[in-house]
Amino acid sequence: MNIHEYQAKELLAKFGVGIPAGIPALTVEEAVAAAKRLPGPLYVVKAQIHAGGRGKGKFKELGPDAKGGVRLAKSIDEVEAFAKEMLGNTLVTIQTGEAGKQVNRLYVTDGVDIAKEYYLSMVVDRATGRVALIVSTEGGMDIEEVAHSTPEKITTIVIDPAEGFMPHHGRAVAFALKLKGDLNKQAQVISKQLYEAFVALDCAMLEINPLVETADGNLLVLDTKMSFDSNALYRHPDVVALRDETEEDPAEIEASKYDLAYIKLDGDIGCMVNGAGLAMATMDIIKLNGMFPANFLDVGGGATTEKVTAAFKIILSDPAVKGILVNIFGGIMKCDVIAEGIIAAAKEVNLSVPLVVRLEGTNVELGKELMAKSGLPIVSADNLGDAAAKIVAEVKKAA
Ligand code: ADP
Ligand code: MG
Prior knowledge:
Number of strands: 19
Radius of gyration: 25 Å
Bound molecules: adenosine-5'-diphosphate, magnesium ion
Number of domains: 3
Helix content: 25-40%
Largest sheet: 6 strands, antiparallel
Number of helices: 13
Oligomer: single chain
Distance between the termini: 37 Å
Strand content: 25-35%
């Protein structure tokens, strides 16, 4: 789960991390009122969307010459003008995809006199089972380019969670950022505070870009991206309360209502599978046959008619889907019951694309018979390889 920048900053402030003053706003009036409560004379109006690259982003409605989603305002009037430009419009950044994201919230924050921009992030590194703390002297809006062309300018420090953040980790951060004197000490303190927040909040990722050195010699967090380990959210009701459903894929929200694990992908073939392992194998075998899955969808152990129908609707709500492959193992659920669910669902949703079904398990023969007699154009498959080959062939035939 992701949260907005202003929410992440409010969480980090509780750990003592230095952040510029700022106030969220949902309307132009609120943005103006927020600016009036800040010291000025510089303000920054920041679009709050769950995607980075806002500064270099473009608003669809404002043409190619307009500025992006992070604007430096020199007066309250400018804050008002920028808020008007941003609210309700669609910001396209390298992270949003072409569709962009509508800006419904702003964050009005204190303008900071920046001496230098640094980069600092933390992720749970599955390969080492540890927290990777990544820092660079080259922070700011071009970090992707730095990682690509000058990877030597990025330093990774690995922290064993059992050991925790030790003073030498802090010194390593300060050294990598080439900081001296008081700034060196501040880097040690802030990296420890950020690590403590990362662990206490069960973050999956925390990115500070930029972490800035101000003209008057302080280290401040200017931008934050924070995401959480969804398996640990039950421990953080306060974090769950920050969820902004307008930022999430509507199909994924719908899926979560039926307890379906659904993730949209870029391909053409919708998949409905029970069990995450089988879902992964199904996606692999579709790729092996030369096409790409349109989604990951695990209907779980108890694939009821209701769940199967909901799953069909969700898959078909994606206009990219050109065919559906159902791959279900009837272990807890019997295959005939699953077949009935598929038939009922296919009738209800007026299936408009080819459907290949591979069933295996208890009462499989009965299940296949039901599908064959249903009068629906369901193609039955015998195994994983057969199923993938058939759906790819059906989709190509229909094209
Ligand atoms: P994004 O990463 O989505 O583009 P940032 O919050 O990092 O958005 O803002 C982009 C750039 O805008 C920063 O690298 C920084 O140079 C500038 N900026 C952001 N916030 C402030 C601020 N409070 N004061 C001055 N400059 C800022
Ligand atoms: Mg940034």
